[in-house]
Amino acid sequence: MSDIEPHMASLFELIGRAQTLPILWSLRQSPKGFRDLQRSCGDLSSSVVSRRLRELKEAKLVDAVSPHWQLTKQGVAFTDLLATMSPWAKRWNKLIS
User: CA 77, CA 28: separation in Å to the nearest integer?
Assistant: First the structure.
């Protein structure tokens, strides 16, 4: 059994789902309506976007403020944390390429 703590495993399981990070990253730039969000993520299917938004809302990372979706305070804090990882990820990507 892995030594990863359950709360970290839950987080990684959520963000590891297909298209979760692109949705979060798009909303980090600005709140978006459903169709704009769908287009900003490469024209994902509406069912995938709906499912991910529902999961992210349950996780309290996004919320619907009609007619837009936006990050919650927790979502902003999380995407800010992800942004700090960008320089490391760029170096790592070059290393494995």
Answer: 10
Q: Spell out the residues 6+ positions from residue 34 whose beta carbon is closer than 8 angstroms to its own.
A: 46, 49, 53, 69
Using alpha carbons only, give the angle 88, 93, 97 rounded to the nearest 5 degrees: 155
Residue 27 lies in a domain: yes
* Helical ranges in 1-97 per DSSP H: 6-15, 20-29, 34-40, 46-58, 73-84, 86-96
Per-residue pLDDT of the chain (97 residues; tens, 9 = 90+): 467 788 888 999 999 999 999 999 999 999 999 999 999 999 889 999 999 999 999 999 999 998 999 999 999 999 999 999 999 999 999 999 9
CATH number at residue 26: 1.10.10.10
pTM over 0.85: yes
Question: Tokens 């927790």 identify what position?
Answer: 74
